[in-house]
Amino acid sequence: MSNTPSTLFDKVWDAHVVRKIEDGPDVFFIDRHFIHEVTSPVAFLGLQNRGINVMFSERTFATADHNTPTINQHLPVEDPLSANQLKALEQNSAKYGISHWGLGNPKNGIVHVVGPENGITLPGMTIVCGDSHTSTHGAFGAIAFGIGTSEVEMVLSSQCIMQPKPKKMRINVNGALNKGVTPKDVILYIISKLTTAGATGYFVEYAGDVFENMSMEGRMTVCNMSIEMGARGGMIAPDETTYAYIKGREKAPQGEAWDKALAYWKTLKTDEGASFDVEYNYNAADIEPMITYGTNPGMGIGITKNIPLSTEVEGGKSTYEKSLNYMGFHEGEQMLGKKVDYVFIGSCTNGRIEDFRAFASIIKGRKKADNVTAWIVPGSHIVERQIREEGILDVLTEAGFQLRQPGCSACLAMNDDKIPAGKYAVSTSNRNFEGRQGPGARTLLASPLVAAAAAVTGVVTDPREFI
Amino acid sequence: MAYDKFTVLKSTAVPMPIENVDTDQIIPARFLKATKREGFGDNLFRDWRYNVDNTPKQDFVLNNPIYSGEILVGGKNFGSGSSREHAAWAIYDYGFRCVVSSFFADIFKNNSLNIGILPVQVSPEFLDKIFTAIEADPKTELEVNLPEQTITIVATGEKESFDINGYKKHNLMNGFDDIDYLQSMKAEIETFAAGRLY
Ligand code: SF4
């Protein structure tokens, strides 16, 4: 081993290079592969056409999530195209011996929620999935990113993909977070500073007090949205919080294997003096609860601020105006007090137990606003069970909310959970692109606390009023 | 997709001394709705090749029986336009294995290499020599030698070297794409996997 200081990212990346191709990409080994119903069928078809097998079926895990309904999951899926994809996932999994958590399975849920929850995601791993928010798993000190369908075929057939190594970026946030400021606000703040293309070509490491003091759920929220600033992925060095989260989970190492793993995990941090291609520093104290006002995740502001003037933003004025037009907003306006029609809490960004606890902390003892339709969608069945067991369901019910069944739901609106055209939704998901939550839908990305405040007042509200 | 190995190709060539041949000409957008990869060769250069009533345009080079072969020689900036891989599929499916030009659009070049077509970039002077030779004698043969990375006008012995990325060269010579390449490494991957902690 050389003594040159190296980064967490280098340590994990270099440990997975099977072969370096001269003036070509690295042959990159993948420890864990998640698949879901939408991006896998064509890859399996490719395997079949070539007559090749899955190389390590035990390294791939299948779950149904993208187009599953969030009510009446015990009934047959009505949409024939969705039903077909779900059936293909089930059949392909059975054929190749891949563990499959389909609809109705007690472990079913959103791929990026169930992986960590069951101890499949571990520090130092490489993890891929045909979904860009695979970066979520970076919270454990893993290199995790989304891949295309042809790469899904590569992983199935050889457990490797061909990857050039990205550049390295470190984002440090130090200090103490203000009241009412959550991990979602931290990442929305960073993206608003860096813009949606600011980290293109990079792999990000998040460092500093703020991330060290964050729960695993919070770290997952942060890493999840790395892709929204163009990064290949984001990661956080594992520590005691990480180990405590993993310990005892179903697929986590146990006994001797645990000790061995732990010893390895303790080496997974960026050495003093290791260098990054670029580094950014932010102050925790500058961050307030955030909300987006436009049509990309970089268009976010502190909730008490006004929508920036077109003269204050970078990039084309016409693009900016088009975006505000779509949203039905004007430059210089206040976001506070804007009417909200829908509230969506869920997705792989904010569909974990901690998010529902946060939501409930504001809802408790209050009532849902009459003008608001709320979709409350747990990230997995395990989260759903926790919601019941912790009494959160009672809080929700008393306040007039209903709990739906797990899935991606309105995050990408592939199932029936579509926000109607022109309606405003405060959403805890990750993308506010035009039409993302349904044709014509207007999305305001925010934290579960902001979502809860909007759900009880019916307008965009500063959650600090309720804390 | 599996394709045939490429080592040395000696063939007559089809001349197309037109600059900026774009992907929309190679395969018009309306033919992209197919769900399979076969059959695109029939529509290669569709609108240059056929009249609206589907009769062949006599003056187009692919309809001229004196020209034939597995090498297509195009003008500068061949393959510009969209990223559609269908353009390369159409050229391959028609029967070309090699395209020669003095400059290639980047994405087209990559797409070609990925599916088994060798794009050979030559100097503008050499390109002119090739066109002149074919014009003088349509039966002019070219020899493209991938291992040596040379292209020769057989009759005159005039020769030029060309560049190719080492990884892509290996793939072409073995008839591999990325998936085949990975398949060929299975023993190495197997050993690597056995050494993983998890
Ligand atoms: S919740 Fe949204 S972002 Fe997450 S996996 Fe599902 S569709 Fe992708």
Automatic annotation (TrEMBL), chain A:
Keyword annotations of the record: 4Fe-4S, Amino-acid biosynthesis, Branched-chain amino acid biosynthesis, Iron, Iron-sulfur, Leucine biosynthesis, Lyase, Metal-binding
GO biological process, one term: L-leucine biosynthetic process
Organism domain of life: Bacteria
Annotated cofactor note: Binds 1 [4Fe-4S] cluster per subunit.
Binding-site list for [4Fe-4S] cluster: 348, 408, 411
Any coiled-coil regions, as ranges: none
EC numbers on record: 4.2.1.33
Pfam families cross-referenced by the UniProt entry: Aconitase
Enzyme class (EC, first level): lyase
Segments forming domain Aconitase/3-isopropylmalate dehydratase large subunit alpha/beta/alpha: 10-458
GO molecular function: 3-isopropylmalate dehydratase activity; 4 iron, 4 sulfur cluster binding; metal ion binding
Physiological role: Catalyzes the isomerization between 2-isopropylmalate and 3-isopropylmalate, via the formation of 2-isopropylmaleate.
HAMAP family: LeuC_type1
Subunit structure as annotated in this protein's UniProt entry: Heterodimer of LeuC and LeuD.
Protein name: 3-isopropylmalate dehydratase large subunit
UniProt organism field: Paraflavisolibacter caeni
Gene coding for it: leuC
UniProtKB/TrEMBL annotation, chain B:
Keywords annotated in UniProt: Amino-acid biosynthesis, Branched-chain amino acid biosynthesis, Leucine biosynthesis, Lyase
The keyword Signal is annotated on this UniProt entry: no
E.C. code: 4.2.1.33
Cellular component GO terms held in the UniProt record: 3-isopropylmalate dehydratase complex
Pathway: Amino-acid biosynthesis; L-leucine biosynthesis; L-leucine from 3-methyl-2-oxobutanoate: step 2/4
Any one Gene Ontology molecular-function term assigned to this protein's record: 3-isopropylmalate dehydratase activity
Gene Ontology BP, a term: L-leucine biosynthetic process
EC primary class: lyase
Catalytic activity, as annotated: (2R,3S)-3-isopropylmalate = (2S)-2-isopropylmalate
Aconitase A/isopropylmalate dehydratase small subunit swivel domain ranges (all copies): 5-124
One Pfam match: Aconitase_C
InterPro entries membership: 3-IsopropMal_deHydase_ssu, Aconitase/3IPM_dehydase_swvl, AconitaseA/IPMdHydase_ssu_swvl, IPMI_Swivel, LeuD
NCBIfam families: leuD (TIGR00171), PRK01641.1 (NF002458)
Similarity-based family: Belongs to the LeuD family. LeuD type 1 subfamily.
Function description: Catalyzes the isomerization between 2-isopropylmalate and 3-isopropylmalate, via the formation of 2-isopropylmaleate.
Oligomer and partners: Heterodimer of LeuC and LeuD.
UniProt protein name: 3-isopropylmalate dehydratase small subunit
Originating species: Paraflavisolibacter caeni
